[in-house]
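Sample intake sheet
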Amino acid sequence: MTTFTIILSLLSGVALFLFGMSLMGDGLKKVAGNKLELVLYKLTNTPLKGVLLGTAVTAIIQSSSATTVMVVGFVNSGMMKVAQAIGIIMGANIGTSVTGWILCLSYIDGSNGIAQLLSTATISAIVAIIGIIFKMFVKKSGFKNVGDIMLGFSILMVGMQTMSGAVAPLKDNEHFVNVLTMFKNPAAGILAGILFTAVLQSASASVGILQALSMSGTITFAAALPITMGIGVGAACPVLLSSIGTNKNGKRTALIYLFNDLFGMLFWSIVFYSVNAVVHFPFMNATMSPVLIAMLNTVFRAATILVLLPFIKWIEKIVYLVVKDSPEDEEDQADFDLLEERFLAYPDLAITQSHLAMNGMAKKARKNILRALSLFLVYSTEKFNKVQEKETLIDKYEDKLGTYLMQMSTHEMNGSQAKQVSKFLHTVSDFERLGDHAVNISEVAAELNEKKIAFSDEAQYELDVLENAVKECVSLAVDAFCADDLEMAAKVEPLRELIGILCDELKLRHIARLRTGKCEMKQGFAFNDLLTNLERIAAHCSNIAVAMIELEAADFDTHEYLKSVRELKNDTYMAYFDEYERKYDINGYRKKKTKAQK
C-alpha cells in the first residue's frame, strides 16, 4: 500500500466521518425541534446548571462548536448574558468527548457467534437498513429525521473503519513511528493537535483520527496527551469564525471557548509535566487504545472544567478586558441604567428617566438612518454591518422601554403623567421603525454595490433632493422630541406632506425614464424600494410630532388631528409647506440642463 493510497484512504474516511457526524447531528436537532434553543436560554441561571446543560446538549448534537455557535447567537441578540454563556460553553467542552466513546463501537469486531453479531459491520448494516426504510418509505417527518440519525451513525462508523484500515499498515513503517515519537515532545504534540483540529474544524474528527492511529499500536500516552490538549484549542477556530460580524458580546462569548481550552492546556501542561519531571510516571510509555483515548479525552476535559469552574467571574473579566467597551457602548448601557425599577413608585422621576432613555434611542435611530444613506456615497461592509448592529440595539431599547413604560402604567398616576406615558408608548414603536427602515435602505445600498448598479444623473439628483428633505424631517422630529419643542414639531407634518408628493412625482418620472431607456429595469426596483422606505420614514416622523402636539389636546386621537390639520391647513402650515417646496425643488436638474444646452 503506497503512501498516496494511505493518505487518500485516510482522507476519504475523514470525509465520511464528518458527513456522518453532520447528518446525525442535524437529525438530532430536528427531532428536538426548537426545544434545544429554548432550554439553553431558560435553564442557565447558575453556572453549574449551565455546565450540566451544555454537557447534555452537546452530547446530543455531537458538536461543541454547534452548541457554542448557538450560544454566540443568543448573546449577540441580547437574549443571554455573557456570564450565562460561560457555564454552557464549559459543559460543551465535556459533552463533545462523548463522541469518542461512540466511536469505540466501531472497533468491536469478531469472527463468529455473539462477537460477529456485535461487530461494527453488522451493527452499521442493521442501523443503515432501518434508517433508509424510515427515510424513503415512511411519510411522517419525525421518522424521516430518525432515519437521518441512523444513516448518519452508519456513515460515521464506516468512516472510522476506513480510517482504521488506512493507518493499519503504518505500525510497521519506521518513518511513521519516528514521527509519532516526535509528538512525545509536549510542545510538538500540542501544536499538532491545534493544527489538525483547526484544519478539520472538528474536535471529534481529530479524536477519531487519534483513535484510528492508536490501532497501529504506536501511540503512547506521552504522545496522546499533548495532542489531546491541542485538539481543544484547535476546536475554537470554527467558533471564532462564527463570531465575525457579531457585536462585542458575541465576540466575547467566542473567546470564552478559546480561553477555556487555552487555560486548561497551560494549567495541565505546567502541573502534569512538572510533577512528571520529579515522579516520572510509569504509564507515559503505555500503549493507547481507542477506549483509552476516549477516556483520556473525557478525563482531561472534565478535569479542566472542574479547575476553571470557581473562576467563572475572572474569565468574564478577562474577556471584557480583551474586548473592551467603547465610549459609545458605555453610553448605551448608561441609557438602560436609567430605567431603574425603584423609580417606578415615583412617576415623575420614572417619566424623566424614560424620556432621557428615549432621547438616546431617538438619536441612535437618526444616526443609523444617516449611516445607511451614506452607503450610497461610499459603500463599506464595515458600515453596513454597523447599521445591522445598531438596529439590534434600537430593538433592545424598544423592548426595555416598552416593558418599563407598561410597568409604570400599572402604578397610580395623575392625568398629566398618564398622558406622558401614553405619548412614550405611542412614539417608542415609531423610533424602532425608523431603525427598521435604516436596515432596509442599507440592504438597497448593498444590492446596488453588489450588482454594480448606478442611477442616471437625473435620477441621482432627484434622490439627493429627496434624501435631504428626509434628513431634515428626521432631525426635526428627533430634536423636537428631545427638547419637547412643540413649535419645531409643528414643522414636521408640512414637510412630510411635501415628501409624499415628491415620492409620487419621482415614481412617475422614473417610469418615464424606464420607457425611454434612460434607466433600466434593475434600477427601477431599487429606486422604488428606496422611495418607499424614505416615504415611510417621513410618516413615522409625522407620527412622533403629532403625538407630541396631541398631548396638549383634551383628546389623544392622532388620526383625527392629522385629518383636521390637512383639511384646515392654516397659515402657519402653508407657510412651512411653501418654504419646503422652494427648498426641495426637484426641477433643479432640468433647469440646469436646459441652461447648459442654451
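Comment: Residues 40 and 248 are 21 Å apart (CA to CA). The mean pLDDT is 79.
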